[in-house]
Description:
It is built from 15 helices and six strands. By secondary structure, the chain is mainly alpha-helical. A two-stranded antiparallel sheet has the order 1-2. A two-stranded antiparallel sheet has the order 3-4. Helix 9 (171-195) packs antiparallel against helix 10 (199-228).
Amino acid sequence: MLALLSDYETLRLAWWVLLGVLLIGFAVTDGFDLGVGALLPFVARTDLERRVAIHTVSATWEGNQVWLVLGGGAIFAAWPALYALSFSGFYLAMFLVLLALILRPVAFKYRSKNESPVWRARWDWALFVGGAVPALIFGVAVGNVLQGVPFHFTNDLRPIYEGTLFGLLNPLALFCGLVSLAMLVAHGAAWLAFKAEGPVAERARVIGQRAALATAALFALGGLLVWAGAFGGYRVVTPLIGNGPSNPLAKEVVADAGAWLANVRAHPALALVPLLGIVGPLLAAAGLRAGRDGWALLASKLGIACIIATVGLSMFPVILPSSTHPGHALTVFDASSSLATLRNMLIATVIFLPIILAYTAWVYRVLRGKVSERDITAPGSPAY
Length: 384
């Protein structure tokens, strides 16, 4: 164990895996919160029905959002160059995400402070924005990463980002945004079908089937676009040095339209991951149609995990390519923090992550069961 903690290459790979786990954790937990928000105007037609939908996530959304904080913290501490480029280059896009996420808790807290239908309707639309906008922009960000981002480093390794907000909103990135939005809407619908009773659950099953089928179709189409070279890949042509210094300029990278398929060609077993990214949503749609809501939710989680994992496995070892200076791309082996930082953070993660997982599991166990209109109208109900 001590030998592994002293091996720089192993630590870098471990943190690459952990970053993927944290992003998947955010998507499968807070993802259904975002999906419920995006669905709110469509699955609930009365104020009581909207309160039922909101109450399915009201007790857990804050805890679920911790995964986003953990992911951002992991990028900051383990991949400082990635943090500097992504959070500064995507600054305006991140600002829109943060604005939408800020709207969500405010809407939760304030919508029931006034019984005016107009007042509550406005906060319901705020919840819609707080769910739909992040779901879309996260996908747009992934689409830009797949194509490459316009940046370079100076000789003293100072990152320079050359893009604009409107440059991020290109057709292929927006396509990835639609994949993300459909995926999280389907996930939110599966959650509502699993947790709610009555008309809200029934409408969620219908919408969820359509969103899940759209997710499978769009993701499959995305695979065809990658195969056709629409998403330009990048390939490292110099030998990778796993224990080398964190210097993004000490390698050569070339643009290669087929690069994102190279890992699958070299290791055909990896094709199972994108395949499950298609099968998962299809099983979720079938589960919703059959009324097997628990299985539908699990299948939705499987699909989300595999869709996100597909991106990471396809790009490895690249984590952020440069469209203007390919040789300046960030990889797993040249963009990390020091060995001591990665080692100490890994020790802390091994200690505290199981505690977080155990506490999260306990919370969901305590809050198990469906939400009905009776729960909302009961005297002393804590529902928003």
